[in-house]
Design brief:
The chain is α/β, with parallel strands linked by helices and 244 residues long. It contains 9 helices and 6 strands. Strands 3-2-1-4-5-6 form a 6-stranded parallel beta sheet, sandwiched between helices. Strand 4, helix 8 and strand 5 form a beta-alpha-beta unit. The chain is elongated.
């Protein structure tokens, strides 16, 4: 089947994995180690819910779970701490440009608690915002990967009705690869993230392809589309030679 869309995960895929102490981000944001600990604990609880129930969460929920009023200044300092770890891979813009030149739509589907506006700021900062046809953040919807509804939301946003004509590119064998394959998409794994054991999930599905850098995604998409074209030509040849 011809590939009509490529959907990317964000952290660990479009943005390379960085091993950090995420608790420090909340301490920096709150300006107080104890408040930071409460916020970080609340965040971990929401991620655990996502892992077990595939239910999404938001930054507002973190503050509520920590028993604190939502504070945009704390969030701003929290994001400032994360800033050096958010830059997209240098391959991202050329890859997206090449895909769109082939008439292939580009999407993003990210498991995230962050507001949409923060992701959009990052993509604009790094020059890829205008190369993305649709972006779905689980903080805006009810479900997280690997739930099929999350992938369905991304496909719907891109106007793609057949999941078999889409590819998902991600770094997590459970959330990304297992989830996308279960939803009917082809999959490409970027295997460079040091995913904690607690986040691995019960299944590590095998991807349709594995790449060592994002630029290689284009090679696989071109090959799959060539194979689809060759198969279509063969079927056409068979049809034309069949007697009436």
């Amino acid at each position: 089947m011809v590939i009509k869309a490529v959907i990317f995960d964000w952290g660990g895929t479009l943005t390379p994995w960085h091993t950090v102490d995420a608790g420090e981000a909340w301490s920096a944001g709150a300006g107080d180690p104890e408040l930071g600990r409460r916020l970080f604990t609340a965040e971990l609880e929401l991620w655990q819910r996502s892992q077990q129930q595939h239910r999404s969460g938001t930054m507002h929920e973190i503050f509520a779970a920590a028993g604190l009023p939502y504070d945009p200044e704390v969030v701003a300092r929290y994001h400032a701490w994360w800033e050096p770890h958010t830059y997209v891979d240098p391959d991202a813009a050329p890859l997206m440009t090449a895909l769109r030149a082939r008439g292939i739509k580009v999407g993003v589907l990210s498991n995230t608690l962050w507001h949409r506006a923060e992701h959009e700021r990052i993509f604009a900062r790094d020059g890829i915002a205008e190369l993305i046809d649709a972006d779905i953040y689980t903080s805006d919807i009810a479900w997280t990967k690997p739930h099929p509804e999350a992938f369905g939301a991304a496909l719907a946003a891109l106007g793609v009705s057949d999941p078999g004509s889409a590819v998902f590119v991600g770094d997590r064998p459970w959330d990304d690869i297992h989830g996308a394959r279960s939803a009917g998409l082809r999959t490409i794994l970027v295997p460079h993230s040091e995913i904690p054991e607690s986040q691995r999930g019960p299944v590590e599905a095998e991807a349709d392809a594995v790449v060592q850098r994002l630029a290689e995604v284009l090679t696989h998409v071109d090959l799959w589309n060539k194979q689809s074209g060759d198969l279509g030509n063969k079927r056409g040849d068979v049809g034309s030679s069949t007697p009436c």
